[in-house]
Amino acid sequence: MESSVKLCRQINQMDMVDFLEGLGFIPNKIRGNDYWCLSPLREEKTASFKVNRTKNVWYDHGTGQGGGVVDFLLKYWNCAVGEMLQRFSSLDASYKHPDHWPGPRQDVEKKTLQNEGGKIIIRSQSQLTDPALIRYLRSRGIPLQVARQYCCQVVFELYEKRQLAIGFKNEAGGFELRNAQFKGSSSPKRPVLLHQEAGGLAKELTVLEGFISFLSLKTLENSRPDLAKKITENKTDYMILNSLALFEKSRGQMEKYGTINLLLDRDKMGLTTTGKALAQSLQYRDKSGLYQEHKDLNDFLKALRGPDKSQEKKIGRI
After folding, report:
1. Are 178 and 166 in contact (CB under 8 A)?
2. Distance CA 128, CA 105 (A)
3. Tens digits of residue pLDDT in 188-216
4. DSSP code, position 10
5. What is the value of pTM for the model shown?
6. Cα–Cα–Cα angle for 133, 135, 140, nearest 5°?
C-alpha cells in the first residue's frame, strides 16, 4: 500500500503536457500557462481539455471534471488504482518521458516562462537530400528510394531552434519527425491510411505503429518478397497509427476490412494491444511472429542486413 501511494505521488509530479504528447494528444493552442487540446476522454471537434502547466492539473470543460495525472489516468483507462499502476508500469519509456518526472514544479514553471510555445512549427518541406538524414535512413536499413515515396525533408522549429528531420505527413497536416537525435511530431497527430488503389478498399489492412516500421515493411516487399508474403499474399492497404494510443479510436476504420494484419511492436504495450484486439474480433491477425525475436519490424530488418560498422561511425559524427 505504501509503495502504491509513493508511486501515485511520483506520477502526479510528471509534466502532464509532455505525458499527453507521448500518448498522442498535442496542444491545439497555448494561452500563457494553459495548454488546450482535444479531450482524450471523449470525442470532440473543439479543444476544451485544458492543462495548467504551472499547477500541473487538468480540467475538461465538457464534463466538468479535472485533477492531477493520476485522476486523468483513472478516467483515461477507466479502471481502479491497482490496475492503473500496473498499466502505467508497463508503458514504454517513450510514453512516460522519464526525463520529466519526478520533476520539481519550479523546473516546469521555468520551462514555461522561457518558452510559452513549446510547440513544433513546420517551416518548410522538400525532397529528401540531406546527407545526415540519408545516413540515418541507411542506419535503419531503409533505402532512400523507398523513403522518398512516402516521406519528405522538413525544417522545423522547436524552442526557437531550427532542426532538420525526415517528415511523414498525415492528412490533417501534422508530421511525424525523425533524425538521428530527435523523435517527435507536430500537431495535429493522426493515423495515416494508405490505399493500394484509388477508389476502394483492398482485401486486407496491415496496421503498424510507426512510419519507420512501415518503411521497413515496404523495404521487405521489395527486397525479400518471400518474407513479406508471410504477412499477406493479398493486396493490402496500410494504416500507420503514429501512436499506439490511437489504436482504439481507429478500430472503426480498421474493421471496415475483412482481415486486419497487426504488425505492432513486441514490447509490453504492443503485445497487450494485440492480445486485446485478437480477443475482440476474428478479423484481427497477429503477424508479429515474423520478428518475434526482435522489438519491432525495423530491428528485424536491420538484423537481416547485418552490422554496418562504417555507417555506424558516420552516424556518430552527425
Report:
1. yes
2. 41
3. 889 999 998 877 899 999 999 999 999 99
4. H
5. 0.64
6. 95
